[in-house]
């Protein structure tokens, strides 16, 4: 008879049985002769409930939409350019027209002496002028420093003495 009862139980039947000491016991098979049994047909687990399924599907749709939006935003956003390397040398420009070259960054300002003539008497004044810095290649700076032509500001070029050149500390190499 027990075989008949177990055969009639479907795979989704779950039985609550009163076990020893009154404890509730869940079983896929009918309870024994002396135990009280109450079959629970088509019991849904939390994961099988329609509300959980709908919430899960909704969450999946939201995740997919967010991922798609992020992907589209990333493809439309301009790519961040890599930080350019620092210049090898600098062209320094003073508002009075002086241009000089350095291998290190230009100073923020330079001392400028202005001479005005009052009759036959020169009057000199000293002030500090801002310097504009423009990055240039090492070759451009070295060519301008070596150039024999006199350029207004050439006296401010960064140059190295014979000892520094012999010790190979001159960035221009000669």
Automatic annotation (TrEMBL):
Q: What is this protein called?
A: DUF4124 domain-containing protein
Q: Where is the composition biased (Low complexity)?
A: 67-80
Q: What taxonomic ancestry is recorded?
A: Bacteria, Pseudomonadati, Pseudomonadota, Gammaproteobacteria, Lysobacterales
Q: Which residues does the annotated region (Disordered) include? A: 46-89
Q: Where is the composition biased (Basic and acidic residues)?
A: 54-66
């Amino acid at each position: 008879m027990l075989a008949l009862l177990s055969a009639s139980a479907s795979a989704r039947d779950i039985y609550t049985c009163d076990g020893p000491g009154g404890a509730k016991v869940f079983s896929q098979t009918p309870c024994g002769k002396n135990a009280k049994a109450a079959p629970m047909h088509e019991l849904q687990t939390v994961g099988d409930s329609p509300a959980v399924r709908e919430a899960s599907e909704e969450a999946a749709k939201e995740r997919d939409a967010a991922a798609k939006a992020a992907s589209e935003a990333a493809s439309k956003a301009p790519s961040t350019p890599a930080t350019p390397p620092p210049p090898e040398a600098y062209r320094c420009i003073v508002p009075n027209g002086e241009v000089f070259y350095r291998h290190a960054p230009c100073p923020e300002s330079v001392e400028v002496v202005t001479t005005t003539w009052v009759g036959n008497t020169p009057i000199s004044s000293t002030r500090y002028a801002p310097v504009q810095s423009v990055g240039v290649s090492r070759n451009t700076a070295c060519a301008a420093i070596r150039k024999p032509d006199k350029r207004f500001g050439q006296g401010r070029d960064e140059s190295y003495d014979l000892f520094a050149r012999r010790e190979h500390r001159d960035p221009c190499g000669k």
